[in-house]
Amino acid sequence: MRKSRFIGILSIVLILAIALVGCGNTTATPKATEPAKKEFKVGLVTDVGGLNDHSFNFLANKGLEKAVKDLGVTKGVVESKQMTDYETNLSRFAQDKYNLVIAVGFLMQDAVEKVAKDYPDTKFMIIDSSITDRPNVASAMFKTEQCGYLVGVMAGLMEKAPAIPNALGKNTVGLVGGMAIPPVNDYIAGFIQGAKSVNPDININLKYTGKFDDPALGKQTALSQIAAGADIVFHIAGGTGTGVIDAAKEKKVYAIGVDADQNYMAPDTVITSALKGMDVATFDVIKGAMDDKFKSGNVFFDLSNDGVGFATPTKVVPKEVVDKVNDAMKQIKDGKITVSNKMPEGYK
C-alpha cells in the first residue's frame, strides 16, 4: 500500500518535472529588429561669395539644413575662397564617399564635369548650369527671366509719372550685375523687358562689377548710379549686392533684392526681391537621391511650379502697381506673355 502510494507520488513528480522542462525550452520568437538606417552624406561647396552672401549660397545651404532636420542627412559644407578651390573641394567630398555633392553656381561647371567623370559612383548636383552628358549629375535650372520681368514691371510703374501717385520721378533705375554670365543676364534680360513693357522711356543704367564677393565695390557702383539719377537699384551680384543695398539705404532711394527676400537687410529700402527657389530645389534633389529617385540632366524651376517669384512688396508700392504685377504673372503662367532670356539689344 505504501509502495503503491510512493510510486503514484513519484509519477506525479516526474510528470510535473517533464512539463517544467518543456516550458523551459519554449522561448518566444524574438522580434525582428529594424536594420540600422544607413547614413546619407551630403556635401555642399559654395561659390566664392560664401554662405553670408544673403543670396544663392545662403539659399542652397538653407535647403541642406532643412534636409538635415527633416530627412536626417549628415552634412558637410566647404566655402570656396577662390575659383581654383572648386575642383579640390568637390573632389574631397567624393573621396570621402559622400552620397551627393552639391556645387553652388554656374562658375563650377568645368570643375563638376571633371570631378563627376573621375567619381562616377558619386552623385552631383549643380545649380544654375546645364550638364546633360553625365548620368551622375543633376542640373537645377531656373527661369529667372520671369521673376526679373515681374520686378521690372514694378520698377517701371514706380518710376512712371503721373499715372502712379507715388512715382519717384527720375525715371531711372540702376542694375548691378556680378558677372556677365547666364544666371545673371537672365534676370537682367527679364527686368529690362518688364520695365520697358510698362514704361518705354525708362532709363536703365547697367554695370557689372566682375565679382560676387566684394560689397565695397557693389556700394561704389550703386552710388555712381544713384548720382546719375537712379532712385531704384536692382542687384544681381551675390555678396557684392549687399553693398548695393547699403548704398540705397544711405542715399534714401529704393532697392530690389535678389534670390532670397532681402527686405530684412534694410526694411525701409528693399521694396521687393526677385525670388529664386534654390532652397526648394536643393531639398528636392537631396530627397530624390535618398529615395533612389535621382534624376540626371536638367530640372527646370519657373513660375508654373513656384520655382521663381517675387517677395511681398512693402507698403511704399501702391496697390495698383502690385495688382498689375500680379496680372503680368498670371499672363506669363497662361502663356500670354513670353519672357525671353536673351539680352535686349544695346545692353551687355
From TrEMBL:
Pfam families: Bmp
Keywords from the named record: Cell membrane, Lipoprotein, Membrane, Signal
Domain ABC transporter substrate-binding protein PnrA-like: 42-339
Localization (cell): Cell membrane
Record bears the keyword rRNA processing: no
Gene3D superfamilies attached to this UniProt entry: 3.40.50.2300
Main localization (coarse): membrane
Keyword Lipoprotein: yes
Membrane topology: Lipid-anchor
PROSITE patterns: PROKAR_LIPOPROTEIN
Gene Ontology cellular component list: plasma membrane
Family (UniProt): Belongs to the BMP lipoprotein family.
Name of the protein this chain belongs to: Nucleoside ABC transporter, periplasmic nucleoside-binding protein
